[in-house]
């Protein structure tokens, strides 16, 4: 299994890595321990590759994660549901970020 970090590689490059892995009959698993935006980026990549094995996500990263993004990931029967909102499906919420400055 090839572990791909779509956030660091970029989704386009990650798709190319997944295609190379598929050519060698290797499944992929996106690495994702970041926030909701990264989860959505990885989810969209995962939906587009034929050799997905599993997608990592951190469901309890911060107690206020939902306050700093416009849309939270939705899970149904243990599966992440792709949002129908534009782009990645969420974006940072400026007011939420201001309420939780770095320490």
**CATH evolutionary superfamily:** Enolase-like C-terminal domain
Q: CATH fold name, please?
A: TIM Barrel
Report on the biggest sheet.
Answer: 2 strands, parallel
Task: Sketch the topology as an H/E string, one letter per element.
Answer: EHHEHEEH
Number of domains: 1
Indicate the radius of gyration in whole angstroms. Answer: 14 Å
Mean pLDDT: 92
Please tell me about this protein's structure.
This protein is an alpha+beta fold and 103 residues long. The protein has 4 helices and 4 strands, in the order E-H-H-E-H-E-E-H. The protein has one domain: Alpha-Beta Barrel (TIM Barrel), CATH 3.20.20. The protein has a two-stranded parallel ribbon.
Helices and strands, with pairings:
Blueprint: E1 2-4, H1 6-9, H2 11-23, E2 28-30, H3 36-48, E3 74-76, E4 79-81, H4 94-99
Parallel strand pairs: 1-2
Antiparallel strand pairs: 3-4
Brief write-up:
The protein has about 100 residues and is of the alpha+beta class. It is built from 4 helices and 4 strands; from the N terminus they run E-H-H-E-H-E-E-H.
Question: Descriptors for this entry?
Answer:
103 residues, alpha+beta, TIM Barrel, two-stranded antiparallel ribbon, 4 helices, 4 strands, elongated
